[in-house]
Specification:
It is a single chain. The chain has 122 residues and is mainly alpha-helical.
Length: 122
Amino acid sequence: MAIHYSQYFNLLHQDFVSKGVYNAFLDKDSLLHVDPLLLKGCLIPEFKESYEKFLCYFQQLIPLVRFVKEPNAKDLFFKQIIKKFTLREISNTGLGFSCKNYAKISRIAKNELFMSFSPQQR
């Protein structure tokens, strides 16, 4: 059974909301994501160059697409692209997909993302 931080610490959900704190689950990932467009023009020092880093990371994948012969794990280029789409979660954030509960969703999403490239780009 999923349990929220507020339940675990015997606090009110409203206490979290009033402080602007996300009342995440302790034992389940939330399936939230960070919208990369929100990083664009961000003035927070820790995130100032994050949008450019995000773009650069994925721009490095585009040249690999044309070398993929078969979209499966035996193809070296396809395998490398899928590996790059597999981003590690920062520990204890509760964001992303759980290895136990949602690994299949994550695997399907990576493959579909690759397949969304048009044949002209491949």
